[in-house]
Amino acid sequence: xxxxxxxxxxxxxxxxxxxxxxxxxxxxxxxxxxxxxxxxxxxxxxxxxxxxxxxxxxxxxxxxxxxxxxxxxxxxxxxxxxxxxxxxxxxxxxxxxxxxxxxxxxxxxxxxxxxxxxxxxxxxxxxxxxxxxxxxxxxxxxxxxxxxxxxxxxxxxxxxxxxxxxxxxxxxxxxxxxxxxxxxxxxxxxxxxxxxxxxxxxxxxxxxxxxxxxxxxxxxxxxxxxxxxxxxxxxxxxxxxxxxxxxxxxxxxxxxxxxxxxxxxxxxxxxxxxxxxxxxxxxxxxxxxxxxxxxxxxxxxxxxxxxxxxxxxxxxxxxxxxxxxxxxxxxxxxxxxxxxxxxxxxxxxxxxxxxxxxxxxxxxxxxxxxxxxxxxxxxxxxxxxxxxxxxxxxxxxxxxxxxxxxxxxxxxxxxxxxxxxxxxxxxxx
Length: 429
Fold this sequence. Notes:
The protein has helices at about 10-20, 20-35, 40-65, 70-75, 80-115, 120-125, 130-145, 150-175, 180-190, 200-210, 220-225, 230-260, 270-280, 285-320, 325-345, 360-385, 390-395, 400-425; strands spanning about 350-355, 355. It is mostly helical.
């Protein structure tokens, strides 16, 4: 018998955990600042509700109807589509293989601050500690998923998601009390409406919405297969608003810190792992605040990593008949082996290709291009080949809303994703 979420709350928290990741906390503020400040929030909110939320509802509907994960669901639409399902599962595994490396970095800095140890990022990556913490992160993710939907994934989400919001609010309260808070918030939220005429700003908004909500990857389809009778539209709305709230609050937390201490708001990973640790080492209560900040990042990363691992694990269970423990062990082993080159690219070994770390190359190939292609596959397969009565039965609503929903899935989303794909290929940096 297929395992189910124990409650609607558990399902929603687990789905929020899959959506809220490291990118919400350190990537979103940078994207906002780079694309017109507060004005960027206009296309972003449009993208989230007109693009991201319909894809989320589609995945939940497919998962609950077929009561199975990605490959079996695609196979039941058309047998030949199972190849497309395997592509999505393989891509998800490759993304997790390097995402665990970054999760390991964040875990390491959490422990450094809890222990009161100062370790510069350059010294950290010059050692083999990144490899060790990559393996530890992979191990933690394995044990959570091995424990099952209720005892592993759901229990973790119920514990960490409230903690994540609490930590975010604590850091936000400190951040807005700093002398440079006003300047930081002005940079973050002051709208430059002229930027709305730039199509690249809109492309960035739709791209960020796609990545932030974890839609199109098969994660939410898999989670949807464990649903009971939850209302899909209502659940998707709560998850979407929660993810949006975390992203916006993260900016309110980050930019006052950036401006108060004269940091570069466009520093990205360097900001989180190089500049901020130095600041936390110097300020009053900095060791405590640094520990909270990196634990916040680790909790966000872990809940996302768990959701990624569940995609190949559920495939092994549903399609090949594996028992969960064996499925989790095999999937984790293969993903860790695939992630070793990425883990070693930021160690003393410095594995690179064409002067670029292998982790960065994997991120572009799978985490950018691969995910967009996966989203195209999902929207086209469901929009053009899945019986629409199945979708209507699952999502409910009026006939007018259902027709609008199908038009969005069939035409609007594939066009937006295709444009994003072209932009990413033309401007990979």
